[in-house]
């Protein structure tokens, strides 16, 4: 089963849900397997956070985002594949930018870039990691040099640099 991607045009998803579960008795291997299952069955995002639970026990919080209509499927997977006795979930609104893809030239070859557009203006420029990794390895250069050249060629300077 394939995860359905949201549309590429800018929009607000009002029918999203965030689900959370805390574990102190599940192995990392199980969590990786569960993440794959959740994503394959329609979760938009799945992530884990290290936490401390009662009696100061280390644990892991699973969080996922999905469309409201996927709640039952997500619950089925979590209850069947993990040790939890309960799941917290609540409504969530997500504002998604318009997304377009383009090729940006570098001295080492073209890199695919995802552009995030808000109200007709490009506000995000994300080079495709696998392209940048391949170029860095093939040319034995730091990956940050590849990113910098992509952003320069695209005429986009990230705000965190």
Terminal Cα span: 39 Å
User: For the CA atoms, what is the radius of gyration?
Assistant: 19 Å
Mean pLDDT across all amino acids: 91
Could you state the order of secondary-structure elements as H and E?
EHEEHEEEEHH
Number of strand segments:
7
Count of DSSP helices? 4
Give the % helix.
25-40%
Main sheet attributes: strand count, strand direction, barrel closure = 4 strands, antiparallel
Low-confidence stretches: none
Q: Please state roughly what percent of the residues sit in beta strands, choosing from under 5%, 5-15%, 15-25%, 25-35%, 35-45% or over 45%.
A: 35-45%
Structural class: alpha+beta
Shape verdict = globular
Q: Identify the strand order in the major beta sheet.
A: 2-3-1-4
Topology diagram in text:
Blueprint (H helix, E strand, L loop, with lengths): L10 E13 L4 H13 L4 E8 L5 E10 L3 H11 L6 E9 L1 E7 L6 E8 L2 E7 L1 H11 L3 H12 L7
Helix pairs in contact: 1-2, 3-4
Task: Explain this structure.
By secondary structure, the protein is of the alpha+beta class. Helices cover 29% and strands 39% of the residues. It has four helices and seven strands, in the order E-H-E-E-H-E-E-E-E-H-H. The protein has helices at residues 28-40, 71-81, 129-139, 143-154; strands spanning 11-23, 45-52, 58-67, 88-96, 98-104, 111-118, 121-127. The strands form two sheets. Strands 2-3-1-4 form a four-stranded antiparallel sheet, covered by helices on one side. A hairpin with a 2-residue loop joins strand 6 and strand 7. Helix 3 (129-139) crosses helix 4. The radius of gyration is 19 Å and the shape is globular. The two termini are 39 Å apart. The model has no long low-confidence stretch (mean pLDDT 91).
């Amino acid at each position: 089963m394939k995860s359905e991607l949201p549309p590429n045009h800018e929009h607000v998803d009002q029918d999203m849900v965030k689900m959370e579960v805390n574990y102190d008795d599940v192995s990392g291997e199980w969590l990786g397997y569960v993440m794959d299952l959740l994503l394959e069955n329609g979760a938009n995002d799945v992530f884990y956070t290290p936490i401390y639970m009662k009696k100061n026990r280390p644990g892991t919080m699973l969080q996922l985002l999905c469309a409201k209509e996927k709640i039952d499927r997500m619950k089925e997977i979590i209850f069947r594949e993990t040790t939890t006795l309960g799941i917290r979930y609540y409504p969530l609104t997500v504002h998604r930018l318009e997304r377009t893809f383009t090729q940006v030239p570098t001295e080492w070859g073209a890199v695919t870039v995802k552009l995030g557009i808000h109200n007709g203006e490009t506000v995000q420029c994300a080079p495709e990691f696998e392209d940048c990794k391949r170029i860095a390895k093939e040319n034995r250069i730091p990956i940050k040099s590849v990113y910098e050249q992509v952003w320069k060629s695209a005429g986009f300077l990230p705000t965190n640099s």
